[in-house]
Design a protein that fits this description.
Two copies of one chain form a homodimer.
Chain A (H helix, E strand, L loop, with lengths): L1 H11 L3 E3 L10 H11 L3 H19 L5 E2 L4 H4 L2 H17 L3 E8 L3 H11 L2 E4 L2 E4 L5 E4 L5 H14 L2 E7 L6 H4 L2 E2 L5 E2 H14 L9 E5 L4 H10 L5 E3 L23 E5 L1 H4 L15 H20 L5
Helix pairs in contact in A: 2-3, 3-5, 3-12, 6-7
Chain lengths: 313, 313
């Protein structure tokens, strides 16, 4: 799947992932009204609205980008109907040929982590049969519990040729509270670098043709740390959140790429999916929200091309 | 809800939480067969089997313990039907008067963490209505992303009078890989202690009558660290996994309690729910698996009483 990701980035010339993190306040009123007319103001109504909203965006951008990243929390908040909309979104995107990165940030230990890995990337056995649960292509994973939490994912990744992105340095303002602490028994390197070094070891176990099935998450909001981490984990793709709405800019992204012009994929969520609510794209209007999202993807692609000196175009 | 937990521990004399982490290999064949006859060897069949298995255990132990802790990964591996069994389990246990700790180990940032908090502990707005998604009483939360990940949970805890347990030092063998690293800008304290100090700050914001709505997870397998962390977080209940199957023993537990005989709740999962597969309780047989679980709870209660010098009995 990492080989497919590399291929699709080369084909589209866009190292971009669209974050499908729908909030009801982003969903245009005509879609909400239609869903509520059919299902009432219920969890089922909310779930239907966010799926239809996603579908419009995916139809408008699937030819431009290699991947989408649905954030499961935004679905899980609507309980079982919300998670059904998550699964419908995963399936719909895969049907459109998109790679699906499940932003699930799961992490536990031993058989429990294996259950997450099996549920999201692999197959679960039921008697003599096997079933895929959510069946994403990649998943994000939290490293706080150490190798006991990650190895079960690596096992499933090897079986299924799928991948993970391990949280290393997250894009949020308080990410330094623990991630930036200096480790005295490692030459005063910050924790995120120690985690990065471990990601590099995990990555070595699970290589695709040029990159590993084990990638990392590093926020666009910390470009200097990205520069260091790029070198610490040369074989890992870096999934970069924090571009756009969170403050990361095109010029900040250069450090996250390798010299081959690859090795990073930049996420934008709100900046794309709610583009029509941004003054810049307001002229599209609510009804044409998906066209606004397409315009935002094209602008983002241009911003990255300019920053990278057109390495991919 | 923390007040209710304290009350129920005093009433039952058992600072014990039963971990409802069903794996199909634990489920007696008569339950599996009945479910597969009705639903086939499908995800629905697996989900029905694990719910019925849980129900038997809950019916057998609900009068002995204050709380249960379903591990959502074990349900999530069966996709949507599995998560429906999780929700049925939460509801069934609450109907029996048990406190439900959702072992979900979620953690993200800002509005995303809020979505998890709302989905598991709070209410989500849909138009003019509000709905509970999963509606557990407590949830476990991963701290790697810092305060941006925890504060949204604290906000919902205050609104709903519910609680969280923040992962501090986990019970698994590799938990030290990152959690034990020494922090040079904090007098060479290990990271788990820094996280513990932060838990104590979060806890102060959200107090019940005697304990905080913000608790911590510290593994029974690390009693010396538990001793330190008990003092670092005096207002926080400690949820202690790792007793029994993972190697933690009664005598190791003393350090996790405060002098009031409270402040800790010990989890056992496999040791209770799959007791009938343990040689010690094998005479119960598969059909009477729930009676074996009841016997295991009573033995665990006795083990803890002996270790604590009967502070609660």
């Amino acid at each position: 799947m990492i080989n497919k990701l590399v291929d699709k980035i080369k084909k589209t010339g866009a190292p971009i992932v669209v974050g499908l993190d729908p909030m009801l306040k982003y969903v245009p009123s005509h879609i909400q009204n239609r869903a509520f007319e059919e299902y009432g103001e219920t969890l089922e109504g909310a779930a239907d609205a966010i799926f239809e909203y996603n579908k419009g965006i995916v139809d408008a951008v699937y030819d431009l980008v290699p991947a989408v990243k649905p954030q499961i929390a935004m679905y899980e908040q609507f309980g079982i109907p919300g998670l059904m909309a998550f699964k419908r979104t995963v399936d719909y995107c895969k049907g459109k040929g998109l790679i699906v990165i499940g932003d699930i940030k799961r992490g536990d230990i031993g058989s429990t982590s294996e259950a997450y890995a099996v549920g999201h990337l692999g197959r679960v056995a039921v008697g003599s049969k096997e079933y895929y649960g959510f069946d994403e292509d990649f998943a994000t994973v939290n490293p706080y519990l150490g190798s006991d939490g990650i190895n079960p994912f690596i096992k499933v990744c090897k079986e299924e040729k799928k991948g993970i992105f391990v949280l290393v340095k997250t894009s949020n303002p308080s990410s330094g509270e623990f991630q930036d602490r200096l480790i005295s028994d490692a030459g005063n390197k910050p924790l995120y670098e120690i985690v990065g070094e471990q990601v590099d070891k995990w990555a070595a176990e699970c290589m695709g043709d040029t990159y590993s099935y084990v990638g990392a998450v590093v926020g666009a909001t910390y470009p200097e740390m990205g520069k260091v981490l790029r070198k610490v984990m040369p074989k890992s793709f870096i999934l970069v959140p924090g571009y756009g709405a969170q403050g990361g800019k095109g010029k900040d992204l250069v450090h996250f790429f390798n010299e081959d012009g690859l090795g990073a994929i930049i996420n934008s969520s709100r900046g794309i999916i709610a583009a029509y609510q941004n003054e810049k794209y307001a002229s599209y209007g609510e009804e044409s929200y998906a066209d606004a999202s397409r315009a935002a993807v094209l602008d983002m692609k241009k911003d990255i091309e300019e920053a990278l000196g057109c390495a991919l175009c």
